[in-house]
Design a protein that fits this description.
With about 400 residues, this protein is mainly alpha-helical. It has helices at about 10-35, 40-60, 60-65, 70-95, 100-125, 135-155, 160-185, 195-215, 225-255, 260-285, 290-310, 320-350, 355-385, 385-390.
Length: about 400
């Protein structure tokens, strides 16, 4: 009787289980040190668990080779322990004579609901021999964000901890949508959402976060905002601009150009850019008429595209539109970065000659240039596509 061959992936599965089990033990150790009020040791254990999880995901690719049943229990234990850590952090802050930790409570409730949905969906999928896609970019980023946020709360870093929690809420929301999509999609008719489309969606999801960061201090005067949130606002704007070009490049490079992406990309650009311009208007960096002109241009060009599509004509992007997008992004990033510079200059070099005068005119001047270029670009589109209008007028 021939001997059965050993599964060649079994040794890697065993190594992966060792790493994941060690990660669970590190979580337990962090809980113990939290109860004993040893913050440094608890943070060290959590950071070590983060390393172990990253090693199992990126070096061993444990989620790709593990059997569904074993992966379900390992991941369930991981999620429950993270949930317990956030529960302990919430109870500790709740009992202290400080304001109620509303944001941490929101994160705890969201995390608990996410884990409940994970349990329900996973049990249903196990019957079909499938598992939720836990090794996706959003799943990995969510795990990293949650652990980092818990470390920041352990060290009681204040603003940084709240930024981490908002980031974690965003990632949990994204992975929750991913769970729903994976569970309910029709595999015979739909394709997985590409990385390019995920980047495009992320600009829409991050636009409300930009508003929260921009007005974190509940004050329309952006100069009064905390330096950490000014830096975060600038980073978000840089991400908006970079992802605008990156998603299209990735779609072409990976052969994932879709009709959804063609329509969604300009829409997400309009959402993110108008969000920033409205914040600028509220803070006095742009006049109402400037934002109104930009809004009218964007809405009329989208109307022109709709009319063209109805007539069977595709209105391609023009060079003036690309210049408009580039100048808008450059102006936004310049204003936000110079605002950070203004904060540092007023703090460390308050007597710097001419800086106050230069900075007082810079945002308005840049937004004036943006408005003019945006208007000229709109005129160029209408002139170049007058045949489309001729079909209706």
């Amino acid at each position: 009787m021939p001997l059965s061959r050993q599964d060649p992936l079994e040794p890697r599965r065993i190594v992966g289980r060792v790493f994941v089990s060690t990660r669970l033990l590190l979580f337990l150790g962090a809980l113990v040190w939290l109860f004993l009020n040893h913050k440094i040791l608890a943070a060290i254990f959590l950071l070590c668990s983060l390393f172990m999880g990253a090693w199992a995901s990126f070096k061993i690719h444990h989620e790709d080779i593990e059997r569904p049943f074993a992966l379900f229990w390992l991941k369930l234990g991981d999620k429950l322990l993270v949930n317990l850590i956030f529960l302990v952090l919430f109870l500790r802050l709740w009992m202290e004579p400080e304001p109620f930790p509303t944001l941490l409570c929101t994160g705890l409730v969201t995390l608990t609901l996410r884990n409940i949905f994970y349990l329900i969906f996973s049990v249903s999928l196990l019957k079909e021999g499938r598992v939720l896609p836990l090794n996706s970019f959003w799943g990995t980023a969510t795990n990293f964000s949650l652990i980092t946020t818990s470390v920041l709360y352990i060290w009681n870093t204040g603003h940084a901890a709240r930024i981490g929690m908002v980031t974690s809420l965003l990632f949990m929301f994204a992975t929750g949508i991913g769970y729903l999509y994976f569970y309910y999609r029709d595999e015979t008719a739909r394709k997985p959402v590409s990385i390019a489309s995920q980047l495009t969606f992320s600009r829409i999801l991050l636009s409300p976060v930009f508003i929260w960061v921009f007005f974190y201090d509940n004050n329309l005067v952006y100069q009064d905002n905390h330096l950490v949130f000014k830096i975060l606002a600038a980073l978000l704007a840089i991400f908006f601009v970079a992802s605008d070009g990156l998603d299209g490049w990735l779609a072409r490079k990976r052969g994932e150009v879709t009709q959804l992406g063609k329509y969604l990309d300009p829409y997400s650009d309009k959402i993110s850019n108008m969000t920033i311009f409205l914040c600028f208007m509220a803070s006095g960096y742009a006049a109402v008429w400037m934002v109104a002109v930009i809004f009218f241009r964007e809405s009329t060009i989208e109307t022109l595209r709709t009319l063209g599509a109805a007539a069977g004509v595709t209105i391609d992007a023009r060079r003036s539109g690309k210049w408009k997008t580039g100048i808008q992004g450059t102006a936004v990033i310049t204003i936000l970065v110079l605002e950070i510079a203004d904060t540092l200059i007023l703090r460390y070099w308050p007597d710097l000659p001419y800086w106050t005068t230069i900075w007082s005119y810079t945002p308005y001047t840049l937004m004036f240039i943006v408005t003019v270029v945006t208007l000229l670009s709109g005129i160029d589109y209408f002139v170049a596509n007058k045949k489309v209008l001729g079909r209706y007028f």
